[in-house]
Amino acid sequence: MATLRLADRVALVTGGAKGIGFACAKRLAQEGVKVVIADVDVDRAKISVKELKELGCQATATKCDVSVKAEVDAAVATAVEFFGGLDIAVANAGIVKAVPFLDMSEQDFDDVIRVNLKGVFLTCQSAARQMVKQKSEGCTKGKSIITMSSVNGVMAIPTIAGYNASKGGVNNLTRCMSLSLAEYGIRVNAIGPGSIATDVLASVATDEEARQRLLSRTPLGRIGDPSEIGSVAAFLASDDSSYMTGQVLYVDGGRLALNYTVVPPKKS
């Protein structure tokens, strides 16, 4: 039997009930991690936990609005209560509101920044404080914080100004945290997905024009699978990336390298 890279470590995954968040939680669990899935949709989180337990993994669910400090602190406390500590945090929870810039309301902008940027700050700070506490108590396990950015942290789409701004903020917040937490042996890195097959891209399954538009800007000629983000999260959580911190890893099918469009393959 293969050795599990992350056996007996504990992770908190926000927004982990479905999509990229669940893919990260699942891959970590398959690597031996005990996982706390934190999500505003606690019923869906419980279903995801049930799926992990059926695979023989250890997991629990907790309700968490990442924009509320008390709920974030409670989610971290859940990891400590159920599994004895916290070694990995994946700050994945996020939302998007597509509105033309001139029509975007202050509330639209605030809602996205509150979840996508403030939520990452609260999650990472609370997790880091617990990790530092464990280090002071003699814990020697490697600690890793992973934030979820996007190619839209460096690229712009005019109808999602709040999202673009939030993910650019996540990139620099990640770098800042990596410097602040290096002395404690806590590594902080970000993942920047491109077009991934989540609910946000559900229309692509039935809209061939939308699919062609997405693939025209993706050199690898396909939409990514959430499991491919989960694999990168497991890498960043493991000692295989032990000399990496302050980085943003773009998992985008080559999109950021492209300065033109390509002809996508025809759907068979």
From TrEMBL:
SMART domains: PKS_KR
Name this protein carries in UniProt: Ketoreductase domain-containing protein
Presence of the UniProt keyword Oxidoreductase in the record: yes
Biological classification of the source: Eukaryota, Viridiplantae, Chlorophyta, core chlorophytes, Chlorophyceae
GO molecular function, one term: oxidoreductase activity, acting on the CH-OH group of donors, NAD or NADP as acceptor
Record organism: Chlamydomonas eustigma
One Pfam family from the record: adh_short_C2
Domain spans labelled Ketoreductase: 9-194
Protease as UniProt keyword: no
Domain of life of the organism encoding this protein: Eukaryota
Keyword terms, alphabetized: Oxidoreductase
PROSITE patterns: ADH_SHORT
BP terms from Gene Ontology: fatty acid biosynthetic process
Family, per entry: Belongs to the short-chain dehydrogenases/reductases (SDR) family.
Record NCBIfam families: PRK07231.1
Xref: InterPro entries: KR_dom (IPR057326), NAD(P)-bd_dom_sf (IPR036291), Sc_DH/Rdtase_CS (IPR020904), SDR_fam (IPR002347)
PANTHER family: 3-OXOACYL-[ACYL-CARRIER-PROTEIN] REDUCTASE, SHORT-CHAIN DEHYDROGENASES/REDUCTASES FAMILY MEMBER
